[in-house]
Amino acid sequence: MSTSNTAVANKIEIKNLTVNYTENRKSFNALNDVSFGVGRGEFVSVIGASGCGKSTLLSVLEGLYSPAGGTVQIDGKELHGTGTERGVVFQHYSLFPWMTTRKNIEFGIKQARHGVKRSERTRIADEFLHKVGLDGFGSKYPSQLSGGMQQRAAIARALAMDTEILLMDEPFSAIDAKNRVVLQELLLSLWEGDGKEERKTVVFVTHDIDEAILLSDKIVVLTAHPGTVNEIVQVPFERPRNRSALVGTEEYGKFRNRLLGLLYNDIRERIGGDEVVL
Amino acid sequence: MTWKKRFLRVTHLLFIILLLVQLLPDRSTKEVFTGKLVTFATGVEVVTLLASFIIKKPQSLSLLLDIVGFVYVLLTVWSLATAKYNVLNDMLFPAPGKVINQFVEDRQKILINIRSSVGITIQGFLLAAVTAIPLGLFIGWSARVGGAATYITKFFSSIPPIVYIPYGIALLPTFRSVSVFVIFLATFWPVFAGTMSGVLGVDKKIIDSAKVLNVSKPEMLFSVILPASLQQIFLGCNQGLSVSFILLTSAEMIGARDGMGYYVKYYSDFGDYTRTITGLLVIGFVVIAVTFLFNKLQNYLLRWKR
Hints:
The complex is a heterodimer of chains A (278) and B (306). Chain A has eight helices and ten strands. With 278 residues, chain A is of the alpha/beta class.
């Protein structure tokens, strides 16, 4: 049985996904007939205005929420529930507050990589703490770290789990602008790597256009009420990327405006006027 | 801190006043053991001075000095009203030196009684904790939406545990087992209710975070839900602990042959109010010591909270 029309099968295949939410006894359609694929080693961002169901989409991929219709396949197999082949970074509380950062990472490794010895787990944890620039913070509790450092540790855990897929739900949205830029660049360099290792497949949810452009190979723009795919856009910029070299260019400006237009039109249609200023 | 700030404090002046007052002639008809009081106060002063060397934080030092100062004032007024001017009935109000002397004389007996009281409390308390916490975790987690257990708990915890005592006496063979049983009941419900409310209050984001790590059910309960609800559990434990002391000492006054409640009741029946007051003060110190240690444990286990 063929799982995909393309020559190379997608790592994640989302087909006709429909999700209903029940809140205060009222049921509403959060996602309607959403379909797209994520290639192996591809970095895909999902953007859209708040309420477009982008986080709901990610909860389905995380296995925390069951769809009303449609399927999600990973490596051709239908997805059921949570699984440690997917590493997750949330906006808040990715880490357990009662564990030190090192313990948090060790716990993730223990769950995802069976058979790794305790001493080895500690070694891996410290290695990834180093990679995210948290040397010497292994014995600190999350509450002793800044928001940005907590997200660094959460990324370290997800990477230390060495899963093929990374799911990130607005991981930098609660971080101040300056640190957000630093974290984006850290994620970019960790994900792009040195080219020797296979890149991870990433689904990244955000409402920040610049973040999506900088990081992604492909951007899925969602429209709200109900959440449907407005357009899927390939990001035309070469890797490895460099923010300062990229942001000033004319192509960047054009591309950004195009994305903005996709989001903006959607909002204008919904409000029914063109006095909206973004 | 400067030398002056460390040692030139009002508390030490209060100590000297206390000593000077002791130079006044004793007017009580009874023996008042002024020497014992002086020895005791000097001991407290020596310890306080030693602590003044060691303590680093100015606030901690001030706190200690304030408390010690209060003790000196209390002892001064108390000895003036009893031993020195004899304005109170010296049968009902023993002089401070007398109480101190009594404590030293009875120390063996008191120690046995403390051991009995604290032993029963710990036994009942631990029994309640090891049953109520897992049960609360399990029921709270499997019924995260239903509130039936909450109402049932409300009903049982609204029964003042002291009314179980007559039934407990009929049910169980020894006074010790009755006391353990009653403390168990008194502690079980607040700990159970605390655990349940803790579980129901765990942030959904933490649970999601655990779910995506594919934790097993026991891990979810004991490695995630338990630490996440620990603060509420401790709230229940504290409540249980304070009820336990009230209950145990009351029970001991009813039918025990040991324990601090028994000590107080027994000697007040004989009109030995020196021992009665000694007993009261000892109970105060024991309760403070137990609560202090328990708070230390709580702070240690919750050290990850900001």
